[in-house]
Amino acid sequence: MVKEPPYVPPSPQDKETGVSSKDITISQDPSISARLYLPKLNQPHHQKLPILIYFHGGGFCIESAFSSDHQRYLNSLVSQAQVVAVSVEYRLAPEHLLPIAYEDSWAALQWVASHFIDDNVANKEPWLINHGDFNRVFLGGDSAGANIVHNIALRAGVEALHGGVRITGAFLTHPFFWGLKPVGSEYTAEREKGLAYSIWNLVYPSAPGGIDNPMINPFSPGAPSLAGLGCNYICCPKASYQCLASQHA
């Protein structure tokens, strides 16, 4: 049994970083929420900052934007990068099977973009309006969240975001990719019995092509070209001992 880190409340001002956070509702139906982060500002009324939309990991079935681990990480990231961050709480499997997490994440991205020119945006967020620079929008995520970044960045290459907003760049930290054919240093024996295979079948049992579906295997036949990514820059760091490392080397 996997023990998840505890959920923690947002903080008006983190003691270590000075970052403020709060929880907001993006959509009531479907239920999509997020934790917003704002760094300590030198010019509180005029300072415009890059916007980061972040997606947590956890194999699409555990973890949360409200967990202590992600709260600590986002506080540090927001403080050092000086960004306004939207950490998305998408719905999880097995109660909500894929592709629901992808749809929730796309809806969250569109909600952020809608603040650019839409005066009638639902649940309008002052931190985004007052401090967000919509010419500098970034995506980021770890593991399953990085997989989400990959897939919605591809979608942004073929579907317009509200207001003509463009994604400047994205980072995918040890993304959850896999496939039946091993890549690089991946193990070769009984791949269909591995953890990644089991998780994918749990969270997306109806996936066309199974573990070689393009959403988890970007090198599978028929997968969209990476040239179609809807962002200008992409960074893909990996953990040395992460079991999925070679799929994104």
TrEMBL record:
Xref: SUPFAM superfamilies: alpha/beta-Hydrolases
Residue stretches making up the Alpha/beta hydrolase fold-3 domain: 52-235
InterPro entries, per database record: AB_hydrolase_3 (IPR013094), AB_hydrolase_fold (IPR029058), Carboxylest/Gibb_receptor (IPR050466)
Region named Disordered: 1-23
Source taxon at top rank: Eukaryota
GO MF, one annotated term: hydrolase activity
Biased composition (Pro residues): 1-12
Family the UniProt entry places it in: Belongs to the 'GDXG' lipolytic enzyme family.
Protein name: Alpha/beta hydrolase fold-3 domain-containing protein
Lineage: Eukaryota, Viridiplantae, Streptophyta, Embryophyta, Tracheophyta
